[in-house]
């Protein structure tokens, strides 16, 4: 989306240098750029902010040198993410041209508030995750003070009522822009799980489900604009509706989305909480062919004592039964999880329990993280902090074990015919994804020949590596050829 730059490492050094050389004077201060750091949930927030500003009369630009306002949507979840945000903000402040203003927004802004202006001197604005509706007002204030440094605005920490613009975001406006094959659709914000290692409830507040009619309207717009895969995201998608007393809210929402957009090819679920994967949800996933047989189910560990200290579901046998139910209903399902090694107090016996759990469950995909002590979390005060060299050694052991499992899982796909969605092509090779691969976190299906991004291919799997599949094309379909002339 124009005006939104998504990056895992901050804007490029070249962009920053160009900004320093530019001395443009604009007749009207209305141009903005959003730099997005962090997870897909931040990307969705940035698109909502961009839509809100556009509706307020501001204009999105694609490069820093053309922006009057640069908004950095920060991540504050881990120390490495906070350092990335600080470095990006400092670079932008140091290189800004006269009259250009830099605003820190998002999770780190919400977490640190006014303190962020002392870490990054010269910031023009700071606005948190619970104040998105105030962004047009903030830019208007800053615009009146253009050309001179001003004291940063304090972030507002009010949690708006659901249904207001600040919590639900404006519907994404992409009219006239190149259609995308995949899009994230946020169904809720915040989290009420209370995990001992996590700052999300502090940053985002308790779980708040977006109104169903807003989600359905957004799904319809996305498909009309060419989106072929919708990925449902939240801090915990399976908690959807819990704040309204709905215990099967996600299952009902999935069926309603499919009624609204029956032509949607793929609907994918991310960030499911293990204790909330109900029989109804499994049934809905199994009976609707549009729902990818894929589930991201972050369990975090495989030993009950560590899980108790994490304040996570700690009945390991129940976790394994959940996986068994999923595989019984969908024998071809791809299961992804996230794991933490080196959690405070993790003994060699507990770590071995994790290895045994991985071997027993045999996840298709695993993301492994070294425990990061985060001030403000319960785990930060726990005794038995694990030395960094031990964490790294355990990380390597888990990765080595999972690599062999992933290779075996991929090798079991050889001979299958799968539908894949092309991500892009270069140097005679196309990169695609099957239903087994979520964007940005999983592997690819690699093909000879250059096929258009956004096209569907039916492929024959001929080879496997630990992370990717190799395939030949059987049949193909042009990208976005399902969009009617009447679509917006």
Query: CATH topology of the largest domain, which one?
Result: pyruvate-formate lyase- activating enzyme
Average pLDDT over all residues: 85
> What is the CATH-assigned architecture of the largest domain?
Alpha-Beta Horseshoe
Approximate helicity band: 25-40%
Domains, number: 3
Structural class: alpha/beta
The percentage of residues in β strands lies in 15-25%
Major sheet: size, sense and barrel closure?
Answer: 6 strands, parallel
Q: What is the CATH superfamily label of the largest domain?
A: tm_1862 like domain
Poorly predicted residue ranges: 8-27, 147-178, 480-488
Q: If helices are DSSP runs of H or I spanning 4 or more residues, what is the number of helices?
A: 15
Cα-atom radius of gyration: 23 Å
Euclidean distance between termini CA atoms:
15 Å
How would you portray this structure in words?
The protein contains 15 helices and 19 strands. The protein has 3 domains: 4-144, Rossmann fold; 179-409, pyruvate-formate lyase- activating enzyme (Alpha-Beta Horseshoe), CATH 3.80.30.20; 417-477, Beta Barrel (OB fold (Dihydrolipoamide Acetyltransferase, E2P)), CATH 2.40.50. The protein has helices at 13-21, 40-55, 79-95, 107-112, 116-119, 135-144, 165-168, 200-204, 212-224, 249-260, 279-287, 304-310, 316-329, 348-361, 388-411; strands spanning 4-6, 31-36, 59-60, 69-74, 101-106, 125-128, 182-186, 188-189, 208-209, 229-233, 266-269, 291-296, 334-341, 365-370, 417-426, 429-433, 445-448, 456-464, 469-477. By secondary structure, the chain is an alpha/beta fold.
């Amino acid at each position: 989306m124009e005006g939104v730059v998504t990056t895992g490492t901050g804007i490029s050094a070249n962009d920053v240098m160009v900004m320093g050389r530019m001395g443009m004077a604009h007749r009207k201060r209305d141009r903005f750029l959003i730099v997005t750091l962090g997870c897909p949930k931040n990307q969705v927030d940035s698109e909502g902010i961009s839509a809100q500003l556009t509706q307020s009369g501001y204009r999105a630009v694609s490069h820093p040198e053309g922006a009057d306002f640069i908004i950095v949507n920060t991540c504050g979840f881990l120390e490495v993410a906070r350092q990335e945000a600080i470095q990006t903000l400092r670079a932008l402040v140091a290189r800004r041209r006269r009259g250009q203003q830099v605003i820190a927004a998002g999770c780190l802004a919400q977490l640190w508030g006014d303190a962020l202006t002392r870490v990054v001197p010269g910031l023009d604005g700071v606005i948190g995750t619970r104040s998105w509706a105030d962004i047009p007002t903030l830019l208007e204030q800053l615009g009146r003070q253009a050309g001179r440094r001003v004291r940063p605005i304090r972030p507002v920490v009010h949690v708006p009522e659901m249904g207001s613009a600040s919590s639900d975001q404006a519907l994404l406006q992409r009219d006239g822009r190149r259609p995308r094959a995949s899009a994230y659709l946020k169904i809720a914000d915040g989290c009420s799980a209370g995990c001992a290692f996590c700052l999300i409830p502090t940053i985002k507040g308790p779980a708040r489900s977006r109104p169903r009619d807003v989600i359905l309207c957004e799904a319809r717009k996305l498909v009309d604009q060419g989106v072929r895969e919708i990925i449902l995201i939240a801090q915990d998608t399976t908690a959807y509706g819990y704040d309204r007393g709905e215990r099967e809210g996600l299952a009902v929402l999935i069926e309603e989305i499919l009624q609204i957009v029956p032509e949607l090819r793929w609907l994918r679920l991310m960030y499911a909480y293990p204790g909330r994967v109900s029989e109804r949800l499994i049934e809905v996933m199994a009976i609707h062919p549009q729902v990818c047989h894929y589930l991201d189910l972050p369990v975090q560990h495989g030993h009950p004592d560590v899980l108790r200290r994490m304040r996570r579901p700690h009945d390991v046998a129940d976790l394994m039964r959940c996986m068994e139910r999923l595989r019984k209903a969908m024998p071809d399902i791809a299961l992804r999880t996230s794991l933490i090694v080196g959690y405070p107090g993790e003994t060699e016996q507990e770590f071995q329990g994790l290895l045994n759990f991985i071997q027993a469950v045999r996840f298709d995909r695993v993301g492994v993280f070294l425990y990061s002590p985060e001030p403000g979390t319960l785990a930060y005060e726990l005794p038995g902090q694990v030395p960094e060299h031990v964490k790294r050694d355990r990380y390597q052991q888990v990765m080595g074990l999972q690599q062999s499992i992933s290779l075996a899982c991929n090798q079991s796909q050889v001979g299958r015919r799968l539908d894949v969605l092309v991500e892009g092509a270069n140097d005679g090779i196309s990169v695609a994804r099957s239903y087994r691969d979520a964007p940005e976190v999983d592997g690819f299906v690699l093909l000879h020949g250059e096929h258009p991004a956004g096209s569907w291919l039916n492929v024959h799997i001929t080879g496997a590596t630990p992370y990717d599949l190799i395939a030949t094309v059987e049949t193909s379909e042009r990208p976005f050829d399902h969009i009617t002339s009447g679509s917006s």
